[in-house]
Fold each of these.
Amino acid sequence: MQSRLTIKFILLAIILALPANTWAVIYGYIPNSADNTVSVINTADDTDISSINPLGTNPFGVAASPTGDYVYVSNRESNSVAKIDRQTGTVVTTYFVNTNPVGVAVSPDGTEVYVACQAGYLSVIDTTDNSITQILVGTSLFGVAVNPDSESIYVTDDTDNRLRIIRQSDLEIIASLEVGSAPKGIAVSPSGTKIVVVNSGANTVSVITAATNEVSAPITVENNPFGVAITNDGIYAYVTNTGNDSISKISLNDHSVVHVPLDPDSGPQGIAISPYGDQVFVVNNTANAVKAINTADDDITSATTFAVETSPVGFGKFFFPDTPSNLTATLVGKNGIDLSWNDNTDSEDGFTLERRKYINGSFFVVDDTLETNTTSYSDRDLGHNANYYYRVKAHNDAGSTLYSNIDFAQTEREDISCFIATAAHGSYWEPQVMILREFRDSFLMPNRVGKLLVKCYYRLSPPAANFIARHDNLRFAARISLVPLIGFSWLTLHYGIAISLALATGLIIAFFFTDKRLGDHTRKPL
């Protein structure tokens, strides 16, 4: 018994003696194009650098899987992509794709890898069965990125000066947008609303609005921009300028630019934001080094330097994301929701869980004190008749990761026979009924008068609603009569009560004025 206690004490002492970052290490994977290796850097220790042979020639592009299991490296001269196992540091599969693969991106669920090839083809690797599909997209493809929200794939064509947009579901080209000369690097904002394209031949950057495919006016940076990375909050884009050894920090709100000079003859190319957003890592091709710069002040003098091997490129996202994934919301009882998610990191201090009510609501923090390794949460005593949406992110002293996927569950509804709108439209979940419900929750329930009106309505409406529900003609008439109220509610939800009241007043005045004039014209003299 005593010997067992002694062993346990020794093991505990060893664990306590280990450095703190032993359990919270973030690694970056940097392809070195000249010596056909991938350097693995420990971001917490600039002396801890190892090397992997990706079994190909001229490794160039890089992308990590969303769950942090694998890293994919394109070998430009051997027309292949290496799949590297994160745990073992070995190449487990080599995919032979089209000619001169450069950019690499992974689908949000990790089942597909998209490879931009300079022969003009997009090679699509199915990681579930290792099959490869080739799609002719343009003349010479370079960078590739995936929108996590709209299921769109974005590819830069650096000879046609275009951004090609491909639908993920059927791999159809759905748009071709003109950008600047020789577009190279590309990145999508975490929210999926903006796409940033680096135009190497024009010394500019183009910002595209995802919803409308509108291309901004060119944003001037410095010489020969190459790579781009967007901060976790989606506010800034960092661009490497290979031609004059600098990076440009661009505000995605007002498109203002701040230039940060780097070391002379450094040749910056690849760039990526750390998983927790506190540092930007710049791959210096000429200097054979990676610089870690704090995003809080962009001070190059305090940057940490990692010495890697010959001619590093690092074109793409060379960090494994620590973002939680596979968030699932499940209804429990009538108004409780259980949540679960995958913890993809050992670097977090805890998690922050956020929730919103209805699809147009705003997220707010449910709990930001969830401990390390938490993978579930129970949310109880929620309202009836509502959709609750959730997202989660990991955090530590450096900052927060990106958010997980969003999932929702519907709480059960109470007796809804008293709702005239529901009786008229036949379903509680019809869009028109949802508009009225959101108007009730957003503008009536928060004040005393509104609550009184709702209370009176609930008390008086059930007989009328039940009667209307049994007669099709009355249901039709009720739907027509509710149109003005639904329109007013929609305007109020989107533009505010003041604009809605002003517009309604104007319409009423115009109606009566028009009616009076028509009456004057049609009145016959005695």
Amino acid sequence: MTDTQALSVEERRQIVELQDALRRLGAAEWHDDDYEKMHTLLSAAISTPAMQRDVFGLHPLVKDLQTAHIVATEIGMTRGSVLGVLLNGLVISGQLSVEDVRRDFGNDVAVIVHGLARISELYEKNPIVESENFRQLLLSFAEDMRVILIVIASRVCIMRQIKDAEDDDARRRVATEAAYLYAPLAHKLGLYQLKSELEDLSLKYLEHDAYYHIKEKLNATKKSRDAYIERFIEPISERLTAAGLKFHMKGRTKSIHSIWQKMKKQKCAFEGVYDLFAIRIILDSPIEREKQDCWQVFSIITDMYQPNPKRMRDWLSIPKSNGYESLHITVLGPEGKWVEVQIRTERMDEIAERGLAAHWRYKGVKGGEASVEAWLQNIRSALEAGDDMQLMDQFKMDLYEDEVFVFTPRGDLFKLPQGATVLDFAYAIHTKIGNKCTGGRIGGKMVTLRHVLQSGDQVEIMTHTNQVPKQDWLAVAKTGRARSKIRQALKEMAATQAAFAKEELERKFKNRKIDVEESTLMHTMTRLGYRVVTEFYQALADGRLEINQVLDAYMQQQRYDRGEVAPAQTVSADTFQLQPDATSKTLKGSDVLVIDQNLSGIDYSLARCCHPVYGDQVFGFLTAGGGIKIHRVDCPNAPALRERYGYRIIDARWAGKGQNQYGVTLRIVGQDDLGIVNNITSIISKDEKIQLRSISIDSHDGLFSGTLTILLEDTTRLKQLIQKLEGVRGVKAVTRL
């Protein structure tokens, strides 16, 4: 065993403690010999060199035990899930097979291990979830819903331990993925505590300064916040006790990530975020009195404090699809401060803290498993349609958005994402109805299929037998199901049209009494600029290509093949369309896009928002048009790109030697002394490798500020220039824009 694989004294202590803790937690559910078999397997695994540490130096055995502890204590899952986590590492390292697990621990555990093993294989091929393996990742999730919960717990475990990791790039990749994939997954499944922790830790690793700025502000105001919460709670507690209710209350401050999002959205400082406080009232009520007691508390609080009707949320009458039940109201408390109050019962609180894992334990109480299975079925439908990049964007939207509740004329209830249209509702009812939808009727009034639905709408879908899906419907539909069904229908229609076009072409050949040779026809397609047969026939069907044009080109190609004429002229390169996989093939050979003078086959350009220079730390961003924009790592747009489109990020670095001239803008601030501008321009003009493109200086109250736009070769020369400018007497600061 190498030193890097060897377990430290602290890690060995953790292994013993975690095994004991899991044994106590699982005592009621584990089979008689589960622990002994597990302990034997883990003890043997400690000394095997097959257990390799990950990029952060974390030992898989310790990490699996920590993940199993999260699964058991913070999600509340039992035997099958805990054993699945612990055995997963042994299967991945080749010490056990899935069949061994099935024989010794049962099929229930084997199914989980198989799902986890598939996900591990995906990450071995590519450490970042991109569109290609994102589809397979969701399919693995869809096999068994417990796999989703385990993988979320695993990501929480990793995020908790990589604060001091030396590999900052790996940490940023993991944090970005946690923010755009695993946090919304946790949100959808009701794991609000873990979702909040993932978001906070992601912010900590991706936007260090913002995280610690808010954290310091919260620490500085903690004493006054706690005192305010006590003053707010005290009169409420007295009124609820007088009403004979059994309850307890929690006061909390919103998460750092939530505060940061509000600061960005409202474009304000920390002090401008008005609803920092939240109070949770948790009732001890029997199931039959839950709603009655919650509404009684709601009535008492709104009698005491002025409510904000726009901030009212009733997930008691109609729970969220993940089983979440609660009443939310924001009221104006003492000193004119807004406070959010959440009202729920002990049962509802456990579901809110542990998500669906807790919900499933309440048999007969509004079962949540069916609703999540319906959500996963939507994912399967999208996967079948082959949505690639669009699937990921739609998937994230479905997770994040709130829901609207819409009724059929018969009173059947449907839940749709906020912003859903009549067309989405039609596809939610049935694919055939969606394909034939022409509009709808709401409250006796006709509306178009683009009409955005509101909660409570009773919608009658209007259809017509001649209606067919259109390409622009993709811009109308908001749900993943509707978009996938529209794409599927468009593909089927295109295939049918292409088949008709092929028949028509064959008929024309026959009418002209031309014998069709397959090789000659394929050469003709190539000469006309088509590399894929289906695209050729689709062009005929769309009218972009005339049949007579094809016949003439075919006959010319036929004469050339016989040696009668010179080769037919190849279509100009200007009209050639690069195939979608050309870029990806160029990139798959390497994990990093290397930028140098000889880079060919890839359409890339330097981003104008941050003007990268040779030598800057950079990354590539795959644009919607297929090209790649090169951004600086510290580009002001980088956090948003990583959060929203992390799957389009490509690692990049410079190679060779800086030979181009790159534009850079510098901002200079200083004292408005006589001759200072001449001193600045003199420094630039003395360097033959630097060109001054423009200069703009403003002077006010004895100070000057201005911008310089220069051309230079690399960051080394840029740093030297900045040092020289900072050395000019009177210059206070030089910053790169």
Amino acid sequence: MLIYVPDTSVIVDGRFTLFLEEEKNPTVILAEAMLAEIEHQANEGRSLGFAGLEELKKLRTMADDGLIDLDFYGRRPSSANIKEEGEIDDLIMSTALENDAVLVTGDQIQRYISEIKGIRTKYLEHPKTAVRNIEEFFGELTSSIHLKGNCNPILKEGTPGNVNSRKLDIVITENELESIASNVVKRARMEENSYIESDLNGATVVQLHDMRVVITRPPFSDSVEITAVKPIRKLSIEDYALGGTLKERILSRSSGVLIAGSPGAGKSTLVQALAEWISSMGRIVKTMENPRDLQVSKEITQYTSLEGSMEKTGDIMLLLRTDYTVFDEMRITPDFRVYVDLRLAGIGMIGVVHATRAIDAIQRFIGRVELGLIPQVIDTIMFVEGGQIRSVMVTESVVKVPHGMNQDDLARPVIIVSDYFTNEVKYEIYSFGEQIFAVPVDSAVKNETAIQKYAREGILREIRNLTGINEITIEYLNENRVVIKCPEEQISRIIGRGGTNVADLEKKIGLHIDVEPSSENAKRGIPGIEIKNRIVYINIGKPNVQAKIFVNGVLILQAKTSSRGIIRARTSTETGAAIFSAIKKNQKIEYFVEGSAD
């Protein structure tokens, strides 16, 4: 009578229990090392561990029913042994050797090592049939299913842009859900074109043929949950009616392309069509995916993160001499940096990002890469909605005065974002102070509201940092001049000595700035001015009041008027000279009087 010692590989995928169905009253010895490894995986919330526990429970039932003799052997390894590569396999082989048993494995390397050691070995091939639970929920137009224990399954049905949710009239028990999850994991290990993409603490991602299955467990989720997504149709590039010039632009390798859209908009369907079309044109195309779920032809090799790092995958990609790389999809900062590195190395890039507008796709690069590099790495943005290409934007870099600014000395590098089909400029992206803004040009053309908004925010931020006060309002006198209204006692702090603060602000934002007290009874006007015998006479017309004199919004003089409502200033003084110079330059001179009744 033969004694069998199974290793972990044939336990977790169910091959061993299927094998025993053909044996008569066999003796099975389970290595404590194998039990400890499965327990460890289950404790970490890994689906492989739970699948293994289900199979071990089946073995216990078979033993209780008298179908097999079941025994346990060996020492329980430490947690360090479990994590050490090859240690568990060695302990399982030792169990088989010491009990003169047959090692049953589905691992080719384990098979070769055990045979080299002289251990009798039984290698189990993948079974040709398997239970197919999860497909039962999919109909012809079902794009995804959502299963949770003791809840009704929810199905999403329809094409992109026309998706509806439907709740089934059945309830999935937790035991049924565990069975479905276990079968998914087993099939991923046994069936061709299927694999476990990742098995983390509480989350397992499986690619099962053309279906992506995500299994979550505590502690990651509050209970076991399964989400499966399946493409319902595959389109070709002809289905998108792209113009010949746009195809030439993409195929020229002079561009970095972004495919943008919200979840479920049809981004993956479009990028698959693009990848296969480019490949059909004789170009070498690779993909970078995590998880690998694009449905592309066999000529296109699909790569995932190497040792958990897309940066390492990018390093390998540079050695593969590929013409185009599809990056599906970019989420975190290292992903965007890899895209930029590959694009600057001369590889044609097609990146996929979540975005609700085409401009949002570009903004996801801002702050992650230098602003000046964006037009070099992003040439074309295709925005997808409802399964269709709704807009195509292109970028270019120029040096110009941003729209809405009028001073030539404010010229700077500006990224122009235009509609590909109409050549209409939609956005300008540039540095504004210490921030970067994407300004919609169409709004700026109509009423300057976008420019005013950013300028106002910049002024408020600077003033609040300077004075620490919040009682500030800003009004536009015209497109080139604003007035800051604040408490009177703060005016001098805002203006600064000699007007330096206001001058710096004017230079930074490109607008002229006036400063006024925010009190409701503050009055302003244009004084009468006369110069005699090197004395400037400023006629306010209000006797015995405190008045302030401003030149182009900058406080120059504060004094009490005479009984005739006049303020005098000698041109030999700094204040008088400034006023005299303002008169010659025809600059705006105003007075402000607090508390006047008229």
Amino acid sequence: MKKSHFLISHEDYWSIWIGGFVLMVGLFLFFINAPKDYVIQHEKYEAIQAEERAKAPFKTIKWYDAFRSKQKIKASSETIGKFFKKLTSKPSSWNSNPLESFHKSALNFKDAKKELAIKLVNAVEETKLQKRLAEETQVTAAKSKFENIKFNMDAEIAIEKWYKSRDRADKIRSKSNASNLFKVGWMLLWFVILNILFLPGIYYLGKKRSAFAKGFAFVFLIAILAYLFGAQVNMKAMGIGYAAWAIILGLLISNTLGTPEWVKPALQTSWFIKTGLVLLGAEVLFNKVLAIGLPGIFVAWVVTPVVLISTYMFGQKVLKIKSKTLNMVISADMSVCGVSAAVATAAACNAKKEELTLAIGLSMTFTSVMMIILPMIIKALGMPEVLGGAWIGGTIDATGAVVAAGEFLGDKALSVAATIKMIQNVLIGIIAFGVAVYFTAKVDVDSSTEKVKVGLSEIWKRFPKFILGFIGASILFTLIYVLLGDNHAYTIIDQGVIGGLSKNVRGWLFCLAFVSIGLSTNFVELKYHFSGGKPLILYVVGQIFNLLLTLLVAYIMFYLVFPDVATNL
């Protein structure tokens, strides 16, 4: 085959093209299929909220009604959004019969409907009761012209209870109205579309398209099984999601039967993850970074590099880990943001595939434990939500696990945790660049018997190019968000391009990557890297240091230096 242009002959660039294509298609389709008169609707409900805030010192019933109405203005609820939801659908929750995840039998579906109907009746009655109490306390507060502090507090508490009870009722109603969708057909269509997205890159990368397509069918099937097991009710409750199952299933196959040779051309681990990271860039908005203020930025951008450098030095000076690339990948994985940082760092320092697999395995294991244990510790200590959220966001690796752990503590903790993790994600590109410079100028020069010329070209060669797509997506969507304004961006971007498309696509790509990791990992190959248990010791010691330093800095920044930020969040 004729030599290709460098922009189409490297998987990093193909990650940018595929991720960028998905985002551009999403932007175009969600913009032209926006909810009718959504701008006018937003203005109407904004005016109601402003009027209510001028009346009372708390959020009134009418204010919450307007807020709820604004939330329902979603581009993902339009025709194109419903199509993408079906197209990228995953196995649904199930309890005892896994087939219910794809298609419920008429009897089971009917029984499920009856059960939900009973729950809905109870939830509606509870909501009516709470609303009566909310109306009574609000009227009492209004009679005192909102000057009685006790009456105001009683009204505020009662209204919040009513709103939460209505939210629970709405969720049950949504489940009871869910259609009995036969998902297998949509999954087959999604499999075809994913093939179409990746096959041009396979061709220009000099690989056989037929070999990829054949193996990809097997990888996709295991990904479906991973989602299926992760959707089981008890597994979800324990926090064992699709990511863990994808790796477990892959490992079981590769270390027992052995991964078939015809599957290996489809094990494009780094390519799947890199493409997903480009999509992730659209979710890392700089205006959200600024919203949490200096305390959050300090926790994410100061603690993280300190932990990274300290852990790397500990591995080299104390544990004396022979492989500097393994040391660096584990340090970045643990200190920055798990898998994403590990992939970027591995590319920057030319780490071996087995080293990346080991780092990701450690990350997945500890993330599953920490997302359950850390919220329990925070609750037991009676820690404030803002501090608990900051601690979770700065220490738990995966973004999904951060959200799950934060949600366990409350809305405020969830918001703080997710935002700090988002701020931390911005460091992926900076860390990757720094690692590329360090290994090119220092490590590889010291370990080489030949004189290595270090210059911008060598650093650029080592730099993970897909990071440019991540940063580009972040800048583009930040600008779009600012130009549209919060309300309009919520409808088109948050609940359209991202919530209705890119998040789902990213989830599938990560799942395919985790399956590929499992299928390409053999414990015999990893045995050498676990020599003396040093990688495990490195991760544990580094994570303990990370936990202690993050908690200390979060407390100092949010409660001593900038207490107003914690109060206003």
